[in-house]
What we know:
Two copies of one chain form a homodimer.
Chain A: E1 2-4, H1 7-19, E2 24-29, H2 35-47, E3 50-55, H3 75-85, E4 89-91, H4 95-98, E5 105-109, H5 117-120, H6 124-139, E6 143-147, H7 151-163, E7 169-173, H8 193-214, H9 219-232, E8 236-244, E9 258-267, E10 270-279
Parallel strand pairs in A: 1-4, 2-3, 2-6, 3-4, 6-7
Antiparallel strand pairs in A: 8-9, 9-10
Amino acid sequence: MQVISSPEQVQSFLLRQKQNGQTIGVVPTMGALHQGHLSLVQRARQESTLVVATIFVNPTQFGPGEDFEQYPRTLQDDLQQCEQAGADLVFTPKTDEMYGADAQTFVRVTELTQRLEGAHRPTHFEGVTTIVAKLFNITVPTIACFGQKDYQQQLIIRQMVKDLNFGVKIVTCPIIREADGLALSSRNRYLSETERNRALVLNRALRNAGQQAEGGVSPAQIAVEMQRRIHDEEGVELEYAVVADERTLQPVCEDTDSAVALVAARVGKTRLIDNAILRFPSTP
Amino acid sequence: MQVISSPEQVQSFLLRQKQNGQTIGVVPTMGALHQGHLSLVQRARQESTLVVATIFVNPTQFGPGEDFEQYPRTLQDDLQQCEQAGADLVFTPKTDEMYGADAQTFVRVTELTQRLEGAHRPTHFEGVTTIVAKLFNITVPTIACFGQKDYQQQLIIRQMVKDLNFGVKIVTCPIIREADGLALSSRNRYLSETERNRALVLNRALRNAGQQAEGGVSPAQIAVEMQRRIHDEEGVELEYAVVADERTLQPVCEDTDSAVALVAARVGKTRLIDNAILRFPSTP
C-alpha cells in the first residue's frame, strides 16, 4: 500500500492508472477510522480495481467552537486498518497543500444544506462539498463510497455530483453499529461510559420509529415520539428528530411508503447523529 | 467533425478517448463565433490531439436586464467555423440538459470576483465558474483555452482550477482585433456604424496607456487619462478604466514593471470591455 501526501503526485499517478484502464474506488475520510470506514473501503475493493482512501481532517467543515482541534488523529493506526481492508493507496495531504494562502473558491449546494445538520452547523456543508470536489478532482474516482450514517451529507454529495457533472458513481453504504446498537462514529471516543449508555437512546428511538412505521403510525406522530424519548433521556440534549422525505429531506406529514428518520443530540459535549429508513405499510 | 448535444454522451466518449491516450483541448464558447474564438480553437489544435469546442449560451451568467434573450445565436455558421478551425467535436447542450429542475450547486470564487466586471455584474462570475466547472467535468480537458479579452474571467478560472485541483492546464490567448483596433466581440454586432466608430476610443485609450507606461508615466496618471478619454467620447458611457495588478486585479499605484489596463464602457446600449498589458521602464 502506498501512502502519498502530495496532491499533484496522487493526481498524476491516478490519472495514469485510469488511462491504464483501472477503475478507481475512493473513500474520503477524516481518519480516526472505525469499522464503518473500513466497510466503505471493502465496498470500494469489491467495485473497483484500485482503492484509494483519503485521510484529511478538513478545517473548513468545522464551525467556530466545534471540535476541529481535538478531533482524534490516529494516522498510524488508520494506515494499518486501510491496508488490512484492502486499500492500495492512502492520500494524506497536509492542510497547506490542500488550501493555498489565496484559496478563495467554494462549492455550495443551496437547498439540501438548509435543514437539519445545515441549520445546526451553518458553514459545515460548504466545507464538505468544497473538499469533496477537490478530492474528486485529485483522485479521479470511478466510484466513491460514503456512509449512510451521514445521510444528509451523502444526499448533498449526490446532488453536487449531478449538478456539476462529476463523472463519479456515488455508493452509499449501510450504517455499522456496535452490538448494542450505537452507530459507529469517530466521535464516540469522546464519550464517558455513562454518556455512552445514554447515547443508546438515539438508536432505541430510531428502532421504535421503525416499529411504529410498520404498525402504521403517522410520520408526524413518530417524530413526536422520537423527540419525547430523546428529550426525556437524562444528560442528552435533543437537537432534532424528524421524519423526512428520503430525497428532499422535507418533513413528511402525509401517507408515504417510506421515509428517513433522522436524529441529532448532544450527549454531554459530544454531538451525535443517527438515522434509519422507515417502511410504512402500503396504503390500500 | 461530430456535433453532440447530450452531456452524458460527450462525457463517456471523451473519457474513452482520454483512456486511449488522447490529449483533449477544450474551447468553451457561447457561440456567435468570431476570429477570436477561432484563434482559441487553432491554439487547442496545436496543443492537443482532440479538439472540443462547446457552444452554450449560459443563462446563469447573464444578470437581470442583460442581453441573454437577444444574445446572437448563429449555430449553423458557428459549426462551419469550428470545422474549418480544426475542431473534432462540438458540444451543443440544451439548457435543460445542463440545468436540471432541482439544480442547486454553485461554484464561487470570492475575492477576484469582487472588482471590475464583478462589481458591475454581481452574479456574472458565479454563473461562469459554475458552468465552466460543469464543462470541465463533462469534457475532461487536458488543456482549455480562454481569451485574454475576458481578462478577469481567465484569472478567475485559473484560480478555480488551482483551488479545486482541476487537472487542466489553462491557456490564455491574445486578443484579436479588427484592423482599426476594435477588439473582437460577439456583442460588436449590436453596434450601429456610428457606435462602432465611437467604440474605437477603448482601444485608443489602451494604446495611449501603453505608450504612457513606456514613457514612465505613473499607473495612477495613466488610469486618469484613460478615464478622461473614454468619458469625453460622445455616446460612450465609461464604467471603469483602471491600471491593476496582473494577478490580483488590485489597483496599482506604486512603481511596477508591468500591469494590466482594463476598461469597460457602454456604447449606446452595448457594453464593451477591453484590456492591454502595460510595460513600464525598469526602475534603476
